[in-house]
């Protein structure tokens, strides 16, 4: 019980940090007085880098560090990062020193984000699945306490943090929470169940590419009998496929050396099963292209949507609605849509379904999320058109208008649903199409591609601003035409849907061709 609670406090501290970072756009526009497009660019770069580092950190955890030490390093990074952020926002610094420390703080925090995201869930599950805790009533109590905390802390963070007017205090609170969480976590260092690093399965992919590259001067093997396979090595053997033939060289047995000599160097001779696992990974990569445009849509929630909310009336009766409550609605939609995806997947998958049928199964959740993206962007465009109409009617270019912030709820709920469906559907699809040990890496690769998409929003805004002659993106959001930009994103999402169907059609066609070739060989 104690071990589980010591770990779960990291999740609570992460929640406080996450809600604070979500309001970063407001700090940049209200306090640092940046143009809203420049502020959005900084937030997008920060979010993109935080997403890109996941794959590398997963490799380091599996190969060298382990989840315990990654949690220690990420908590340390959060503590120092938010500490730097608090100092940069304090009256102590100004000018270039303030900006420099601010960017250093974001870089350090980004390391904390992808380290915590990778290791916290896995390490927590290890403590739950510990043999000594199974069936223990105390474990059930601690599990209930943990879930209550996971509900209470987001609510407290969403309501309490916006009430603090001083930004250096807002940033200091997560820093203090992280330091306290680290002390509590380290107090149980000797009692945790730890899994030692056993090496990364990604090494297999690297070996296949290295072995294939070392035999570039050799021709393609004429048939599968010239390829190496060790039948006693792996129960989950893969049959040879005819696509991506350049990788077959990795398993090709050379006539110039004895087989025993070649087998000693695993970076020059791989098994057919290892080659086929690598092929299954490469076949899924074209689908990741759809994540680029999806990433642009994901970037709106804590940038342009938030800037819209900051210029709307947030009163609910006599109560001033804290803007992070919009994030709560979005997160609730994300979690709800994830559960719906899981339920749909359980219903559509039969336990005794043949493997061949599983691998041709279409990830229907992905096009659903893209269609919802079309609705989200078009609704956002309509809402922004209405908001700008109120701005022109009331002449409130530099002031908050009387239009309620609740007009933004549909687009925030849709954005949360899109994120939940897309993430879950992609993860389920990768579990079926790539080897189990590599599926997590492919999920993280998709997160990285989404990160590139988030940063691509900067380039897209720049191109649209230049094409529109600067009229769509001006000094303030009330002078700009974000509604037109949302229509551009709507068209891009439509194109993304066509791109998805094109990629999946080609993938299904290639898969059926490989299946037919295997049947002919047998």
From TrEMBL:
Keyword check for Transmembrane: yes
Predominant location = membrane
Q: Where in the cell is it found?
A: Membrane
Read off the InterPro entries from this record: MFS_trans_sf (IPR036259), POT_fam (IPR000109)
Q: How does it sit in the membrane?
A: Multi-pass membrane protein
Checking Gene3D superfamilies in the record gives: MFS general substrate transporter like domains (1.20.1250.20)
This entry carries the following GO cellular component terms, namely: membrane
Q: Which keywords does UniProt give here?
A: Membrane, Transmembrane, Transmembrane helix
Task: Spell out the family assignment given in the record's similarity comment.
Answer: Belongs to the major facilitator superfamily. Proton-dependent oligopeptide transporter (POT/PTR) (TC 2.A.17) family.
Q: What is this protein called?
A: Protein NRT1/ PTR FAMILY 5.5
Print the organism lineage. Eukaryota, Viridiplantae, Streptophyta, Embryophyta, Tracheophyta
